[in-house]
Write a structure and sequence with these properties.
With about 700 residues, the chain is α/β, with parallel strands linked by helices. The protein contains 29 helices and 19 strands. The protein is globular, with a radius of gyration of 28 Å. The protein binds 3-hydroxybutanoyl-coenzyme A and 1,4-dihydronicotinamide adenine dinucleotide.
């Protein structure tokens, strides 16, 4: 008998229950248990129909991702799927929670499917750099037609139970998966319904076989935003086989493509991301039994760029927000921007009109910090000046209720110094969101020297409610993300002063898969911020200063390192900038040199990895995967490269050490000397993944 598969009889119907917490993944024990149960039930004459359900949170979450890359253990998923589909007795899947990946493939092999309305049914393998490998690319098009199938398979997004019914993926929406499936089975028996085996049912393929554009248009739309990823293309190709090849032949090709992708670097990276994100959400070193504090209302101080975005993120998660400003005018402006943003998403079809109303209603404006009232969490997003932050926190100390968590969204400032402005530093924490805060998925949770464990836990829960990936980091200038970004910026600037063109460097970064290059990003942020800071500190940067003096402050003035057409954010190379750089270099007597793309990539990325090693050794980040999550979700590091520390392991730490040492010597730049941790790991032939503090 299996520990994870239980069978009980209700009259002549067998209920097969999968009970493998937490998410009923199709690991070896589940596959073996199912194969055994199906074999037994096939020869049990008292059983006339079979119902398959999941216990706990859902039906089945898919293949067990932890088994990927390890030797396969029989029975394979195909054996289970064949047993289901070939069963002479009707099999009904009763779905609740999720039926994802291999889980939906199991359901597709059943003859009938019923589901609760709120369940999620999908094939998200593409998000792991894969395609469905157990018949999903062939059975889903036969269930819902190839246009929707290619959208679901290449895009990865699931359908709700309601949508699945409309699409023909399920037969009925039910209130309870087990009772609903059992009732369906009884009816099917009573009516003598013939068993629907999707492999034998090509009816939904006919239209696209006659008019290929039904499929190709959907495929083009599904992969339109695909940046450098292999899997979406493979998904499209495989769904195409459903139109062109006999079922069994297509299945063999699907399996081969699955194996090929699974062995490839992209899927390895994307699987790393899946686990790193979940690992990062677990706070290292939190004492046993720590519980988050209640979280019913959030107050946000400052309705500017960040405050507005953070307010939207919480409202999107259903959390009521009080948005607080200094006076009526900026408050009104902030609330208007929020409404316009929601209306723009509604106009693009991303949000229902009622949702615009519901969400804007959740955000209440107020003037004055004394209005924080009963907020359980206060997030400060005012100007980035220590004096202003301290003043705000002193006011919060007086106004916030006892036990409220007081968070700062500072990008760089010392959270401990900010906390010192209060009488309750244990309640103070950093919650560093990224711009635009309603979109970017990262929240760095900055642990101060005195931050209480339950405050950290509350901040992490709050971040999740706002649909963010929380990563706990320590206090230092720029925390993890901006500190590493700063190092990249120094190297980019150094190369520019050697004559390497900004657009070449940006091209290397976007070619690598970053959404934006360094100089385009500077234009977006505005060049005047750093210019003012240089002036305050009596510093100069001749090229950047000259750009600002010429009124080229970045996107906001239509010109910066690049020029921008009216209303466009696309950076265009500007010959004026090339001249300005050349003339400045001549004036300074600096020689111009060429660098090839490979050198540029090493010079921009390896120093970030070096800084990451320092960050780990200092305990600012707890795990290499945490640094990866910061870069993936805060800066758009390409998911198929797994994050900077994962990438470093792929390149090989020995190579990185050698190249850094080479550049350090060539430039006389001590900042490029390999960090002790990096050098040690390379010496020992180890990887960051091997590292334990
Ligand atoms: N395999 C192995 N472990 C899995 C898993 C899977 N398919 N799905 C989830 N887990 C683990 C998580 O790693 C986590 O483990 P931890 O507690 O040790 O960190 C635990 O289950 C709970 O997961 P979440 O924290 O993500 O729980 P949520 O409730 O937030 O989400 C979920 C549940 C929606 C099922 C989400 O985990 C998920 O999306 N899982 C992956 C689904 C997926 O991609 N399936 C396809 C797999 S590939 C496949 O099926 C190939 C086939 O075509 C042959
Ligand atoms: P912003 O200038 O757009 O908004 C700041 C707002 O705070 C203004 O509307 C101002 O009126 C208000 N304000 C100032 N003092 C106040 C007070 N005492 N009480 C109430 N409201 C007050 O600034 P932005 O860009 O939103 O930045 C805010 C914070 O977020 C800064 O600490 C910044 O470093 C940080 N941050 C900014 C990011 C960005 O990309 N803009 C990214 C991540 C963090």
């Amino acid at each position: 008998m299996s520990d994870v598969i239980r069978t009980d009889l209700r009259g002549d119907i067998a209920i097969v229950r999968i009970d493998s917490p937490p998410v009923n993944a199709l690991g070896h024990a589940v596959r073996a248990g199912l194969a055994e149960a199906l074999g037994r039930l096939a020869s049990d004459d008292s059983v006339r129909a079979i119902v398959l359900v999941g216990e706990g949170r859902g039906f089945i979450s898919g293949a067990d991702i932890r088994e990927f890359g390890r030797p396969a253990q029989a029975p394979s998923l195909d054996v289970v799927i064949d047993a289901l589909e070939n069963s002479a007795k009707p099999v009904v899947a009763g779905i609740h929670g999720v039926a994802l990946g291999g889980g939906l493939e199991v359901a597709l092999a059943c003859h009938f499917r019923v589901s609760t309305a709120g369940a999620r049914l999908g094939l998200p393998e593409v998000t792991l750099g894969l395609l469905p490998g157990a018949g999903g690319t062939q059975r889903l098009p036969r269930a819902v037609g190839p246009a929707l199938a290619v959208k679901m398979i290449a895009g990865g997004a699931p359908l709700s139970g309601e949508q699945a019914l409309a699409a023909g993926l399920i037969d009925e929406v039910v209130a309870d998966p087990t009772a609903g499936a059992e009732a369906f089975a009884r009816r099917a028996l009573a009516e003598g319904r013939s068993l629907r085996r999707l492999r034998d049912d090509d009816s939904r393929l006919a239209a696209a076989r006659a008019d290929r554009s039904i499929f190709t248009d959907a495929a083009t739309a599904a992969t339109a935003r695909n940046r450098g990823l292999d899997a979406p293309r493979a998904c499209v190709e495989a769904v195409g086989w459903a139109l062109d090849l006999p079922f069994d032949e297509a299945l063999v090709k699907e399996r081969e493509a699955f194996q090929r992708l699974m062995k490839g670097d992209q899927s390895k990276a994307q699987r790393h991301v899946f686990f790193a994100e979940r690992e990062a959400a677990k706070i290292a070193g939190l004492p046993e039994g720590v519980r988050p504090r209640p979280l019913n209302r959030v107050a946000i101080i400052g309705a500017g760029t960040m405050g507005g975005g953070i307010a939207m993120a919480f409202a999107n998660g259903g959390v009521p927000v009080t948005l607080i400003e200094l006076s009526e005018a900026p408050l009104k402006r902030g609330l208007e921007v929020i409404r316009k943003n929601y209306e723009a998403s509604a106009a693009r079809g991303g949000l229902a009109a009622e949702a615009v109303e519901a969400r804007t209603k959740l955000i209440e404006g107020a003037v004055g910090i004394d209005k924080v009232g009963e907020a359980d969490l206060v997030i400060e997003a005012v100007f980035e000046t220590m004096a202003v932050k301290k003043e705000v926190f002193a006011q919060l100390d007086a106004a916030a209720k006892a036990g409220a968590v007081l968070a700062t969204n500072t990008s760089y400032l010392d959270v401990d110094e900010i906390a010192s402005a209060t009488s309750r530093p244990q309640d103070v924490v950093g919650m560093h969101f990224f711009s635009p805060a309603n979109v970017m998925k990262l929240c760095e949770i900055v642990r101060g020297a005195k931050t209480a464990p339950d405050v950290l836990a509350t901040a992490a829960v709050a971040a999740r409610k706002a649909a963010k990936a929380p990563v706990v980091v320590g206090v230092c200038f720029g925390f993890v993300g901006n500190r590493m970004l700063g190092v990249r910026g120094q190297q980019a600037s150094k190369l520019m002063y050697q004559g390497v063109a900004p657009q070449q460097m940006d091209g290397v970064l976007t070619g690598f898969g970053m959404p934006m290059g360094h100089f385009a990003m500077a234009d977006l942020a505005g060049l005047d911020v750093a210019w003012r800071s240089r002036q305050d500190h009596g510093e100069s940067a001749p090229i950047e200063d000259a750009l600002c003096e010429a009124g080229r402050l970045g996107q906001k003035t239509g010109k910066g390192f690049y020029q921008y057409a009216a209303g466009s954010r696309a950076p265009l190379v500007d010959p004026e900038v090339e001249t300005l750089i050349r003339q400045t270099m001549e004036r300074l007597g600096l020689p111009m040199r060429q660098a090839d793309d490979a050198e540029i990539l090493e010079r921009l990325v390896y120093p970030m990895i070096n800084e990451g090693a320092k960050i780990l050794e200092e305990g600012i980040a707890a795990r290499p995967g945490d640094i990866d999550v910061v870069w993936l979700f805060g800066y758009g590091w390409p998911v198929f490269r797994g994050g900077p520390m994962f990438y470093a392991d792929q390149v090989g730490l020995k190579t990185i050490v050698e190249r850094l040492a080479h550049y350090a010597a060539a430039d006389g730049d001590t900042s490029l000397e390999p960090a002790p941790l990096l050098a040690r790991l390379a010496d020992q032939g180890k990887t960051f993944a091997d590292w334990r503090p």
